[in-house]
Amino acid sequence: MKHPEVTSRLLPWYKKKLVSPVNIDYAYHRTTKQVSQKTAVRKSVSQQQRRTETQASEAMAQPAYTVPAFRERSQDDSTPEYQRVSANVGKGLHVIQQELHRMRMATKAQVENIAIQREVKERMSRKSELLDDIGKMPDFLVALRPHTVWEKTPVKLFCTVQGNPRPIVKWYKGGVPVDPLSAPGKYKIENKYGVHSLIISRCVVSDTAEYSAVATNQHGTTSSKATVTVKRASASGEPCHLGLVPHLKDIHPSKLEVSLLDCFSVSFGVEGTSISLACSMVVVPDLPNVPPLVHWYRDDKQLTAGKLAEMSVGGGVARLTLPSLAKDDEGLYTVRIYAKDGTVDHSAYLFVSDAAPSSAGAPGAPMSVKAYDVNADFVLVAWKPPNTVNEAAITGYFVDRCESGSDSWVQCNDSPVKVCKYPVQGLKLGHSYHFRVRAVNSAGISRPSRKSDKVTAIDAAENERLQGTDEGVPSAPGQVTATRNSKSSVFVQWDSPKSLKHLMGYYIDARVVGSKEWFPCNHKPFKHNRFVVHGLVPGETYVFRVQAVNVFGLSEESQESGPITVEPALSTPSAPFGITMLSCDGASMTLAWNSPKHCGGSKVNAYYLDKRNADTLAWKEVNLQAVTERLCKVENLTEGTFYEFKITAANLAGVGVPSAPSAPLKCEAWTMDTPGPAYDLGFSEVRGHSLVLLWKAPVYTGASAVSGYIVEMAKKGSKDFKALSEEVVSHRYFQVSGLTEGESYVFKVRAVNESGIGKASLVSEPVCAKALPGTQEIEAGVDGETGDIYLSLEACEISETSKFVWSKNYSPVGECPRVSMSCKGRTSRLTFTNPDKDDLGRYSVVVTDTDGVSGSHTLTEDAMNTMLELSYAIRHPVIPLKHGLNYEILEKGHVRFWLQATKLSSAVSYRFIVNDKEVTSGEGHKISHDVATGVIQMTVENFTRANEGTYTVQIHDGKAKAQTSLVLVGDVFKAALKEAEFQRKEHIRKQGPHFSEYLYFTVSEDCTVLLACKVANVKKETSFHWYKEDDEIVPETPANVASGACALPVPNFSRKDQGVYKAVLGDDRSKDTSVIDISGQVFDDIINAIAKVAGASASDLVMQCTPEGIRLQCYMKYYTEEMKTVWKHKDSKIASSEKMRIGGTAEMAWMQICDPSDKEKGQYTIEICDGVHTHARSFDLSGQAYTDAYEEYLRLKAAAFAEKSEYLCLLHHILPHTLTTTHTCCKKSKEKTG
Predict the structure, then answer these.
(1) 81-126 vs 32-43: helix axis angle to the nearest 10?
(2) What is this structure's pTM?
(3) Which residues have C-beta within 8 Å of that of residue 1056, sequence separation ≥ 6?
(4) What is the distance between the alpha carbons of residues 567 and 260, in angstroms, rounded to a whole number?
(5) Are 915 and 954 in contact (CB under 8 A)?
(6) CA distance 1135 to 1146
(7) Cα distances (Å, whole numbers) of residue 1207 to 375, 609, 660
(8) pLDDT tens for residues 398-419?
(9) Closest CA to 365 of 268, 476, 473, 451
(10) Cα separation of 280 and 522, whole Å?
(11) Where does residue 130 rank: exposed (0-12), middle (13-18), buried (19+ CB within 10 A)?
């Protein structure tokens, strides 16, 4: 027995009383007679229109799920559930059918009444300006109802609300607003025909809550609440709240309702990688332990789960994963799901390309390796050959085998086999094997194929046998035809070969028109005579060819197909949308609309408008002649009447589907002071973080001209619009930046004049901040041949009907004399005819009939000046010179004037001009050029004072010119003349014996100074003499002039060797002299050279004790006091004195410490400087070394004193006798003299 409350709750909403205020409002606007007339009109429409309205009304009024009556039972009722259900259904079937028919009829009538009420309410809202005193707070005509549903099933809450003005309805769950963006796909909020609904797609237990719809307008707020209870089956491990639940084991997967959502598309993979093909779906009921029954197929052959194909179903997704792709995996994949209403299928092609070859140019791997004719010790292995497009031809194959369970592969054939089959022998009875194949060509060996299935060698087994005995490859396929399919694919079909010879399939190749390189379209032989080639570049033009395949290889290529541009197949355009009213004068309306989202592969060239009175259902044509613009003025309207419009677009394929009817628009003259709405919002240059928003100015400007615009933006699904700039925008475009890549946004624009802010435009279509693949920007450049300055864009995609529309500051350029536009393939160029500052600005281009291909470039003054300079250089080319005009003095005193250009052609012409007179090649002048080096030269043989002046060369090479000059006057000319005269004399000198190298010095390893020279053009009679200060020097070894070199050794060089040295060379032809002055800097250089050798040979300091003191000595190859030698004590320079004596010999330098004391202890250093480096030697005279030296010095001093004393004593004894004798002799001498 039903509970009274339950009965009341289940009472259909159409049986409830209508709220009286609705009838009162209706009577206020329309008499009963008018209502009858309206009903009569609606009954007079066509049968199909009535059927459409009825279906829409039934769908709208269909109540949400409620608990059936047979679910409501008492706790003590112990009858099994399924018996109770069967009894109730059997008894009440006829009653239910009658009730259902009655419900449908009642619903139809009620929906029509609700439609009339909706129109009345809309009229009331439109006349709100006149009827502000008759406002009405919101009131729910149909309130929310509670629902109890199973987990993972959908539920729909709906209500109908009225009010004046029309209320805004918001949804809440447990007092918290419902945000569809917080859980995409879970919530859906709709408002159709005045019915507000909230749809929860897949309920979970946590969705159990109290839901409320809150309606608000300026007169008040009201709400309606209902509880949603989500139940979970007891099999899930939690308590069940629905009493008894159907036994899930009795539900077969094929009894589920399945709808596919997102399915896998055409996919591309590479050998060795992995790929997943997935389909998302909605399953009702979605039971965790009863997934749908899903089968996967490749080329109509069912796949089984295993290592090579992993399958899973659950969570609303059916997935096939291929963990290690091979070309065997290429084909048409189909997922087939068994559902309540039959099977649900989806198919798409998977392309698998060759992996990188083991060596460059090696072929791809073979495929489809299979064993036939299996015997006890013999098996025939066959396979399919790879496609070879740019690789060298295949010369053969190697077959490998491997015992099952082992990873050791053994090559079966010693030399490559040329056909795609090979008998493998030597197998062991009962053993299982796998086989694989490798292809060979002149570049190397391919990667191995995927191994075959396991094959067991069994005696006399009944196995599949390889068919066919005909030898040779098949003949070439017949005519190849390519037709349009989609914007990235082409449908190719061909005739079968005349000679099949057990055909395995076909390979299809393609190339871009204008290119010589073919590329493979499939990598596994395709069995049918038609194939869809995917992954092509939109707008590109291709040709195709086909080859047939059998076990003996590939046939000859077919004839090429005709060229075809990748474009979608023609179809009618989709419906226009976004109909908006731009102005109204009481007798006409100006309408605008957005172009269809899909043009159908052909340009939309016509629009047709229909209108109807909002009170009727009959449509009337507005225009018989096609409207080509998306703007139309509809005239002959009745003021105060509401009209609805719909628009149909047409192209070459025909007329498309009409748009949805516009909102009822009232024909009432606009008198407001503020502007009307902007319209035709569009986008350009959409990138990851920015875009450009474009719009058109309002048709209705208001009381004054439009002074600017306010641009507002919101994220898709949000109504929180925010202004993008604090100041109004003065132009009709706006650069939007700071976007989040991948996020979708919507925009609207308001015009502003002196009276204020006008109406907002329609909200734009959502746009995703993401650049199209392959997007390029506009490039600015200068044509290398013509010198033209241009802007160019290469489109990433293009269609047959596409056009490049150029704009400056987002105003179309059109036919402008300042620029010219050209297009070649996917590239468009905007060329400036006479560029100057007036051409500066932001240029943009949009490619029509694409997915938004566009670009922009801002032309700045600096960039323009740079390009103008380059343009001038190209239009007035100058021959670039590596070196300008220069001169050099040659031997004999000739002067060569020369220049070098970067490049010269054989057609070059030039002339030399000296002091304004052209000089030609002739006596005294030789003029020539070398194209290879770019050198142009003129040689003046007799250079004299008359040659002073200006030299100029003018060059012409095609269009290019160059001129270079050299001023040779004054001191510069005198220096050149002097050098020329010197070279002339040098030439004369060299006619006889002469010095090829004048005197110079060297220092040998033993520090001997050598004065050397080199002589040339000598003979036996040539004499050679050395002089110093005009005194001849006769060396021990005479000079040998025949050797070409002479040298005078100066041993033990010192200051005494300074002077002027001269070498004289002569014979009967002439005489030559070389002089070197060894003094000043030359002398210092010689001393430094000696110091370098001596310093490098210097020994360590050696201590030597003497009676006078302690002496430090340094031995070297040669020492002279002219060498820069410094002695130091504790880093202090020592000067020669009575205490510290400095000296040396030819073999050493020394320093003696006289009468040493403790003050002289420390480190002593000698430094020998050669002008570049310093050679230092040290000795530490301290500690024990000093003590020993000092004791030795005292000993030697004492010994010397003793020796001296002994000598004085001896002298004392000898000296008196000597003195007496001397005195006697002197006396006698005097006497004689006297």
Answers:
(1) 120
(2) 0.46
(3) none
(4) 28
(5) no
(6) 21
(7) 132, 151, 148
(8) 999 999 888 899 999 989 998 8
(9) 451
(10) 28
(11) exposed
